[in-house]
């Protein structure tokens, strides 16, 4: 029997997933924390696959209740990291044990004065299109307004790479490309751009409700009024740069901050960079 007559075939693939880290087994606290995280992040995580990390919890978890709560927020759970009785209970609830990889450090890029490579073909986004006008299903990160990733009794969504979607992936974390994905038009509400294994450069406005995501750095030469995430695969050295900072949400390597109140005058609508300092998200003015 040749392969053409087979009804299916196997292909290697990668899948982005949110890692929800549990710090408590109390169903009420977990439900309340989940509701708050989702309210803070808006649609940033919606419809994203979830890996539940219960490795820090020793108490028995009510897995059916937790799974129902996640699905109630349009977060489909696909896997679990746990030990002992919690792992067995999670298996019985339908979750598959997975191992989470640690992202490889992004190699330093040499300055290249030669013309940039052709970037007219956008890198596919999580929905297999670099720019999509449909409402974005989500994307990345950690506790809201403080920007810190310090442990709390709440589940903290973190972007990770798990295994299983569409393009071939011989390694868990492919090396970053030396060419950035360049977008030369404004992004409207509901549009998302994702630069896989590279930096993202947007020349134009990122409107409220739009999302810009990159495994490397994010550069926005124009007003950044939507959501921006750098280091989507866990690169803590990635940064966000913009000439006009007025964002809804900022995230680097899974640590995020929802900008609910207007930033300080020295930052609001000013050139700025966003970076990680340990587990704290720093927003700094860019000075000439």
Write up what this structure looks like.
With 288 residues, this protein is of the alpha/beta class. The protein has a domain of 112 residues: Pectate Lyase C-like (3 Solenoid), CATH 2.160.20.70. It has three helices and 16 strands. The strands form three sheets. The chain has a six-stranded mixed sheet with strand order 6-8-10-12-15-16, with no helix packed on it. It has a five-stranded mixed sheet with strand order 4-3-2-1-5. A hairpin with a 2-residue loop joins strand 15 and strand 16. Helix 1 runs parallel beside helix 2. The longest helix has 15 residues. The radius of gyration is 19 Å and the shape is globular. About 22% of the residues have low confidence.
Q: Unreliable stretches, pLDDT < 50, 5 or more residues?
A: 109-154, 158-174
CATH architecture of the domain at 174-285: 3 Solenoid
Shape: globular
Strand order of the largest sheet: 6-8-10-12-15-16
Question: What is the class of the domain at 174-285 in the CATH system?
Answer: Mainly Beta
The helix-strand sequence is: EHEHEHEEEEEEEEEEEEE
The assigned structural class equals alpha/beta
Q: Nearest-angstrom radius of gyration?
A: 19 Å
Percent range for helical residues? 10-25%
């Amino acid at each position: 029997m040749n392969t053409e007559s087979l009804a299916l075939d196997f292909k290697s693939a990668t899948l982005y997933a949110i890692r929800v880290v549990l710090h408590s087994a109390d169903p009420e606290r977990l439900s309340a924390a989940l509701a708050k995280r989702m309210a803070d992040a808006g649609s940033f995580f919606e419809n994203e696959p979830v890996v539940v990390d219960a490795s820090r919890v020793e108490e028995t978890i009510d897995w059916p209740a937790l799974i129902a709560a996640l699905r109630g927020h349009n977060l489909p759970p696909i896997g679990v990291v746990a030990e002992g009785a919690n792992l067995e209970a999670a298996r019985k609830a339908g979750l598959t044990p997975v191992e989470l990889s640690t992202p490889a450090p992004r190699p330093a890029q040499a300055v290249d004065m030669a013309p940039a490579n052709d970037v007219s073909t956008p890198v596919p986004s999580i929905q297999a299109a670099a720019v999509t006008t449909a409402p974005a299903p989500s994307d990345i990160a950690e506790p809201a307004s403080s920007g810190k990733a310090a442990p709390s009794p709440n589940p903290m969504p973190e972007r990770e790479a798990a295994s299983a979607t569409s393009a071939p992936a011989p390694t868990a974390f492919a090396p970053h490309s030396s060419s950035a994905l360049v977008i030369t038009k404004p992004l409207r509400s509901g549009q998302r751009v994702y630069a896989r294994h590279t930096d993202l450069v947007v020349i134009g406005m990122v409107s409220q409700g739009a999302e810009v995501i990159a495994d490397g750095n994010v550069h926005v030469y124009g007003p950044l009024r939507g959501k921006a995430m750098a280091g989507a695969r866990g690169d803590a050295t990635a940064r966000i740069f913009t000439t006009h900072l007025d964002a809804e949400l900022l995230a680097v390597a899974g640590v995020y901050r929802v900008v609910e109140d207007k930033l300080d005058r020295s930052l609001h609508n000013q050139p700025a960079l966003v970076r990680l300092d340990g587990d704290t998200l720093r927003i700094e003015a860019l000075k000439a």
